[in-house]
Every structure is written in structure tokens, then in C-alpha cells.
Amino acid sequence: LTGYVGFDSITSQIEKKLLKRGFAFNLMAVGRSGLGKSTLVNTIFASHLVDSKGLLKISENGQPIQTTEIQSISHIIEENGVRLKLTITDTPGYGDQVNNDNCWEPVVKYIKDQYSSYLRKELTPTRDRRITDSRVHAVLFFIAPTGHALTPLDIAVMRRISEVANVIPVIAKSDSLTLEERASFKKRIKDEIEFHGIRTFPYADVFVDTEDDGQPLNDDERAERQLINAVRDVIPFAVVGSERNVVVDGKAVRGRRTRWGVINGIDGFVENEDHCEFVALRNFLTRTHMQDLIDVTAMVHYEGYRTKQLMALKG
Ligand code: GDP
Ligand code: MG
């Protein structure tokens, strides 16, 4: 007898189970009209889709159709046996009206509606063992590449949404800024976000228990802290989207021809990598922080909503 009972196989048992049930990830795009929201969300996962036209409707001439209502589209994508149900929610641009008071309401309502439907399913006695998760895990918030500052409307909308979901700010159409302009714009946006006390993902304070408990960071914690800091440094990601192919070295690749050459975000090949943080954003969403986004949505945002609703029921 060696005393070995084999419980170390639990990790592979868990893995099998998780693989079987698959994962769901729900991403939303928010921002003023014409900033390239539809284009970018099409671009992010396009290479994974059989239909390379992307997730959202594109008109005959390849131009995105102007978005007039909140629209969700799901696709199952598969990579090395891992199935991901990806839902992308595109929203109409805000700020087009004469009166933009409360223009964030439809978006906030959509996000809360998903919490509400999840809660209802959770409270059903005969609930399914697994509830379909339509909760929005990440909101890409598009900032116009003005090079100046956030508008008061941007600040108001970002604040409202950050109260109910994980907000990730991005600088839209960043091909229109020079590197210098982009660097100072980034700094300015960061300062403003901090000044206005808007919480964007990943939250710095999710990971601060360290010094008070007298325990030094262990290696994992240190690595995680470093990753979060590195990511917080890049945010807001300066992105470029493209719905059409351009020819590079005789090969058609998806990209955008700019003053600085071709930017190709799809294959991770970027002629001048400095000019586009598209790949960094995609890695952040898919490789490093997808599970975090899902967990924080469930444990922070949904939990907050749930508590409020249940308190209201009682009171
Ligand atoms: P939405 O209103 O935010 O959904 O914006 P669309 O995706 O409909 O794009 C509006 C226009 O901007 C289209 O003509 C796109 O081809 C163009 N566009 C999208 N992304 C970029 C980008 O990164 N750079 C530039 N220069 N143009 C873009
Ligand atoms: Mg659109």
C-alpha cells in the first residue's frame, strides 16, 4: 500500500466537466455614433468565425449598417476542443439627440434586465441545473480620438455603466492620432477617470489585502499584481478596427491602411505594432482576463443587484 488514492485526478475531472458544459462570454460595445463600435466587435473575433464577415450585419458594400437598436448576436466558437458561446451586444451610438439626458438608460436597463432574468431563474424552484448566463461580462467603452479630453457626456455615461458592469475604456479609431498625441491623450483620460472616481476594470483595489495582514506577497500574488498593473498601464487600449481586407506582401489580410502603413489586427501581425493595441485588447479579453471578467460580474455587479432586489422584497 502506498497510500495513494488518486484524488489528484480531481483537476482533470473538473476540466472534463467544464469542457463538456462549455463557457459563455458576453461582450457589449458602447459609445457615440460612428466611432467604429460595430466594426471593432466584428474584428475582435472575426478570425475565429467560419463566416469571416463577422458577427454583425454588414451591408452590400462592406460598410457596417448604422445600429439603431440594442442587438445581441451569439456564436459558438471552438478552439482546441474548448467551446465558447460568445455573445456580442452592439448598441446604437448615444449623444445624437438634442437632449441627451439619461441617454445611458437603455444600456443600463439592458444590463439590469439580464441580471433580473438570471435572478428570476435562480429563484425558480425547478430551476435548470445550469442557468444560461446572459449577464454582460464586459463593456467596451469607446472614446472619440479627439486628443483633448473626455466630454461631460462620456463621463456621465461611463459612470452610470461602471456602476453596473465591468467597463473597459478604449480609444476608438486611434489611427487618427500620432503616437505622441495618443500617449498624452491616454494620460489625460486616465487622470480624468481617476479624478471623477470612475471604476474601470481591472479594479486596482480587488487585490490589496497584502501589507495589512503582515503577510508578504507570494509568487502567484506578485505575478497577478504585476499583470494587473501592466494592464492598467495600457488601458485605455488604443484600437483600430477594420471590416475589409488590404493586401500586404501579395496576401489579403484584414486591416486598415493609414498614414503609417497597414495596421492588421487580425493575425497579430501589425506592421507597426506601436500603432495599434488591438492585439493587446484581444489577449486581455480572451487569454488573460476572461474568467476574471466573468467572476467579477457574478460576484460584484450581479451580487450587488441581487442583494438590492432581495432587500426590496423583504422590506
Ligand atoms: P459605430 O457607429 O460606432 O458602430 O461605427 P461603425 O463601426 O459603423 O463605423 C463607422 C465608420 O468608421 C465606418 O465607415 C468604418 O469603416 C469606420 N471605421 C471603423 N473603425 C475604424 C478605425 O479604427 N479607423 C478608421 N479610420 N475608421 C474606422
Ligand atoms: Mg454601430
Strand order of the largest sheet: 2-3-1-4-5-6
Spatial gap, N to C terminus: 60 Å
Bound molecules: guanosine-5'-diphosphate, magnesium ion
Strand content: 15-25%
Mean pLDDT: 81
Class computed from helices, strands and strand pairing: alpha/beta
Helix run count? 8
Q: Cα-atom Rg, whole angstroms?
A: 21 Å
What low-confidence regions span 5 or more consecutive residues with pLDDT below 50?
48-55, 265-272
What general outline do the C-alpha atoms trace? globular
Helix content class? 25-40%
The overall strand count is: 10
Mind summarizing the main beta sheet? 6 strands, mixed
User: What letter string, H or E per element, gives the SSE order?
Assistant: HEHEEHEHEHHEEEEEHH
